[in-house]
Amino acid sequence: MTTTVFDLIRHGEPAGGPMYRGHKDDPLSERGWQQMRAAIRDRDQWDAILTSPLLRCRQFAETLGERLQRPVTVAPAFKEISFGDWEGLTREQVSDRFGNHQARFWRDAENHPPPNAETVQAFHQRIGDAWQQWSLALQGQRVLLVCHGGVIRMVLAHVLGLTPGRAMAGFQVPYASRSRVRLDHSEYGLLSSLIHHGPLDHEP
C-alpha cells in the first residue's frame, strides 16, 4: 500500500479587507503574512508544495519553499471559484445591489450562481480533475497545497462524497486554517480519509 498525505492550507487575510474576491488578485496583508507564518510548525515536513497561481497563495508558498528548500509548483487549476459580478464587492454591497440573490446562493449554490460567475458544478469538476491529477503525480509523498476556502471545500466534497452545493455552505474555512487528507492506494483501490479540519492546535 502507498500512502499520500495532503495538507491543505487556506491563504491568510488579503489586502483590501473582506469581500467576494474570487479571481481578484490581491496580495496578503501584513496580518495575512503573520497568520501564514504562525500556521507553519517547525516539525512540518513536505516533499513538495503546490500553490494556486493567485498572489495571496503563491507569494507565501514560494517564500516557504525557499526556506524549506522544497520544490514549489504553481497549479492553475487550484485557483479560487470566480464570483462573476460579485467580485470585489462586500457582502453588504452584494445585498444592496442584488437583493436576496446572495442568500439564495448560500442556501442552494448549484441553482443560484452569481451573475457571470463560474458555476459551483464547474468549479467542483475543475477541482476534482486537478485533485486526481496531482494525487497521482505525487503519489507516496507528503504535499502542502496552499489554496483557497472554496478549493478546500471542493476537495472535501470529493473526499467525503458531498454535493458541491452542500460543501460550499457546509464548512467554515478560516484564514490560514489547515486540513489534512490521507490517500491510501492499495490493490483494492483508493481510500480517501479526512484526518483533520480545523484549528491547528488540535491537529495530530
Please explain how this structure is put together.
With 204 residues, this protein is an alpha/beta fold. The chain has a single domain, classed as Rossmann fold (3-Layer(aba) Sandwich). Helices cover 37% and strands 20% of the residues. It contains seven helices and six strands, in the order E-H-E-H-E-H-H-H-E-H-H-E-E. It has helices spanning 30-38, 55-68, 91-98, 101-107, 120-137, 149-160, 164-170; strands at 2-10, 48-51, 72-74, 142-147, 178-186, 189-198. Strands 3-2-4-1-5-6 form a six-stranded mixed beta sheet, sandwiched between helices. Strand 5 (178-186) and strand 6 (189-198) form a beta hairpin. Pfam families: His_Phos_1. This is phosphoglycerate mutase (2,3-diphosphoglycerate-dependent). The active site is at 11 (tele-phosphohistidine intermediate), 80 (proton donor/acceptor). Belongs to the phosphoglycerate mutase family. BPG-dependent PGAM subfamily. InterPro entries: His_Pase_superF_clade-1, His_PPase_superfam, Phosphogly_mut1.
Mean pLDDT: 95
How many beta-strand runs?
A: 6
In percent, how much strand structure appears in the residues? 15-25%
> SSE order, as H and E?
EHEHEHHHEHHEE
Q: Which CATH first-tier class would you pick?
A: Alpha Beta
- Counting structural domains, the number is 1
The number of distinct helices, counting runs of at least 4 residues, comes to 7
Largest sheet: 6 strands, mixed
| Architecture per CATH nomenclature, i.e. the level-2 architecture | 3-Layer(aba) Sandwich
